[in-house]
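Quick one, T. Sequence first:
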Amino acid sequence: MTAYALAHLYPQPPLHDDVFTYIERIQGTMDPFGGRFLVHATDPVVMEGPLEGGYVLIEFPDMDKARAWYESDAYQAILPMRTDHMEGTAVLLQGVHDGYDATATAKAMRAAQEG
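C-alpha cells:
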C-alpha cells in the first residue's frame, strides 16, 4: 500500500546555502526507494485557519520503502542541511487501500468510543 512522507516546513529567509544543496540532492536519495514528489509547495493556498510555511509530499510504493529512504545513509547525510537551518515537522503516513470507505471508518470509531 502506498505510503507518504509529509513535511510542514518553516523556511526563514534568507535561506542558507545548505538548504539549496539539500533540495538539489534529495531526489537522488529518493530514487532507489521509488520516491517521487507529489507536492513541493512554498506558497500554499490557505482555505481554513492560519498557516505559515510550506508543505512537501513524497510518495513511496509502501511504508517499508518510505522508512528505508528516511533511515538511509544517503538521506541521513543530507538531512542536517535542512534541519540545521529550518524548523518543521516530518511524518511518514500509510495511504488508504482502494475502495476505502470513510463512512465505515467513522462507524467503527464511534462504536469503539461508545464501548
